[in-house]
Amino acid sequence: MEPVRRNLKFRLSKEDADNWNPAGVPFTQFMNALSIFFPAGERFFIDSIRNYRDDIEDEQLKKEIHQFIGQEAMHTREHLVYNQALIDAGFPVDMYMNRVEKLLKNVQKFIPKHVQLAVTMALEHLTASLGEVLLKDPALMEGAEENFKSVWLWHAMEEIEHKGVAFDVWNSVMPNNPYTYTVRVVTHVIAHLVFWSLVIPFHINLVRKSNKKSGVKGWYKCFQYLWTKPGALRKIMLELVKYFRPGFHPWQNDNRYLFNNIDEFAKKADLNYEKSAA
Predict the structure, then answer these.
(1) pLDDT at residue 207 above 80?
(2) Which residues contact 158 (CB under 8 A, 6 or more apart)?
């Protein structure tokens, strides 16, 4: 499947930054904590695939790589806008972003390129799995502020659209043997351990620094949204476990129907952006 680069822009207000989701401050700040990772993370993903671009002979895959890079560049730009809204609202997101960037630069400096690509595969699978949950369960974004909601839905659709690219690059440049399988699954585990070890403190600190009260009720609502009903993180567990299967590929779960309306969505987003500029 060939992804399509879409140059969408969103106006995100600092006034809505810590309570844009009616589920409350803790769930809103969980989503905000995820956004912290995207600017540096998306650049890392782009670089890890560029490392192998010249080794690809398949013309269709070359096109998909080009569009993947275009999509991730747009995600980087819009999550910088998103994160700036958080900074303008008084949250130390710039400090957290710097930590993520420093970590990923060290990965690029000290870790072999094929392991960097394995990191990209692991985290791309995570973002595509989260995107599937967001699109399948409208309750997660029901009543959310329209612009923040649109950023996440757009990002979710495109993460699914290009979810196979990193895997196709891996399968093109790496032999299929016990070593490469081990690298893929061990990296998957380590990448998740590192990622969540950062998400959790970022999330807690963002909630603590919010001027809006959350209390036990807000945290309980967040727990419900993540683990019970709707249960976003609970729902991705099976997909994450499937990753350990030899021969795994993301498109074994063919969920392209989730972005069937993406062109219509993009037109509406463009119109909303133009109206907000008027």
Answers:
(1) yes
(2) 3, 6, 71, 75, 259, 262
Q: Are 64 and 2 in contact (CB under 8 A)?
A: yes
Segments in 89-214 forming alpha helices (H): 93-110, 113-136, 146-161, 165-173, 178-208
Mean pLDDT of the chain: 96
The CA distance from 194 to 223, in Å, is 21
* Three-class SS state of 102: helix
The reply to whether omega before 230 is within 30° of 0 (cis) is yes
Q: What is the pLDDT of residue 2?
A: 87
Tokens 């949950």 -> residue: 133
pLDDT at 278: 60
Q: What type of residue is 112?
A: P
CB-based contact 12:147 (threshold 8 Å): yes
| Residue pair 117/170 in contact by the 8 Å Cβ criterion | yes
Q: How many residues does the chain have?
A: 278
pLDDT at 64 over 90: yes
- Whether 153 contacts 161, CB under 8 Å: no
| Cα–Cα dist 16/247, whole Å | 44
Q: Are 227 and 237 in contact (CB under 8 A)?
A: no
* CATH of the domain spanning 20-277: 1.10.620
Lowest mean pLDDT among 4-13, 53-62, 213-222: 213-222
Instruction: Name 187's Cβ contacts closer than 8 Å, sequence gap at least 6.
Output: 115, 118, 119, 121, 122
**Nearest 5°: CA angle at 67, between 147 and 272?**
20
- In 10 A of CB 194, how many CB atoms? 14
240 with 126: CB under 8 angstroms?
A: yes
Residue 271: alpha-carbon gap to chain centroid? 24
